[in-house]
Amino acid sequence: MNGSETTEHTWLVGSSNWMRTAFVIVRRVLDPAPVPGAVPPPPADDHSMSTPAQPARRAPDSFAILTMIALCAIWGFQQVAIKSTNAFLPPVFQAGLRSAIAALLVWGWARSRGTPLFRDDGTLGAGLLAGVLFASEFVCIFLGLTLTSASRMAVFLYTAPCFTALGLHWFVEGERMRRIQWAGIVVAFAGMALAFSDGFTRAHAGSASSTLAGVTGDALGVLGGATWAATTIVVRASRLAHSSASKTLFYQLAVSAVLLLALAAGLGQVKVATLTPLALVSLGYQAVVVAFVSYLIWFWLLTRYVASRLSVFSFLTPLFGVTFGVLLLGESFSTRFLLAAVLVLAGIALVNGPARPRGA
Asked: How far apart are CA 50 and CA 238, in angstroms?
């Protein structure tokens, strides 16, 4: 094999391994058997799903922590998958296909389990808004990755937990952040800034046009993180919080599929270059593992655990994203990253420290 063939083979093997891992996780999470110690979800045909009554959310336990680490690895690999496929599929069209395929999978999953997706439960407005925000997020990601590296996109995109925690703090009762948790977020963000400070300087060196392109890609990453956070806040602050994970996800995928494919057509981005096995596996990974399996797991976790505590684990995703970028895309790696990783993990430990008893 030559160098490019070796890289593609490694990418394909890595993708298949992540797909197998994802399906093991989804069977563990979404199987009807209850998780030990967890409050079982309401039945799919429970008409009380849109009422205020719901199980109290709790701090992440060991199962939730391990699941979030796996999800962060899956999401970190996503940037590499998108970046490697942009040469074969136009970015917005690729995003639309991803949402359309995943929406069909969610529809089939819900149908097989008897979960209603089209019942009038008062979630339509919030669902449409979540879908628009979801589409906006992926416009930012896919277009941004044509301008900046996968590593930098991962860093800027995963500022989302900061926006999420702030929004939930103001809009959702029971999601208040304590001072030590805010300190943890600051420490983790400082770690990421340290890890990528040299990389940002090198990446933006060169002509004024390349610098502007890089800054634009970085800005799209931050905007993508903000819209991701806004989607989470809409879900938690509306009746979608009482709906099934399948319905919540279907809203986002179906609405974004329509919007993204329409936008791709309007931009003339519906022409497809020669499809390679790498491009097909990448699209399959994005649609099946990321947009279908991992998002169902994520929304399932949001119904069981405090969202702001879960979201902070997303700081791990840039660590995985950089690792995959180095191994598969040959992106640079700074030794400062090791110190930054310690800061990030320390920040997560602070955020997930035991809460003080009420009234203490």
From this structure: 9
Q: What does the block give as tokens for 103?
A: 């929406």
Domain boundaries, the chain: 60-175+198-310
pLDDT tens, residue by residue, 150-206 = 887 887 787 777 777 778 778 877 777 788 878 877 887 787 677 556 556 655 445
- What region does 284 belong to: left with phi over 0, alpha with psi -120 to 50, or beta? alpha
Residue 270 has pLDDT above 70, yes or no: yes
Residue in the structure block whose two tokens are 């610098």 = 211
Q: Which two tokens stand for residue 122?
A: 């008062």
Looking at per-residue confidence, does 327 or 14 come out higher?
Answer: 327
| CA pair distance 301, 297, nearest whole angstrom | 6
The 8-class DSSP code of residue 38 comes to S
Proportion of the chain above pLDDT 90, given as a percent:
28
What is the distance of C-alpha 154 from the center of its chain? 10
Buried b (16+ CB within 10 A) or exposed e, 313-326: bbbbbbbbbbbbbe
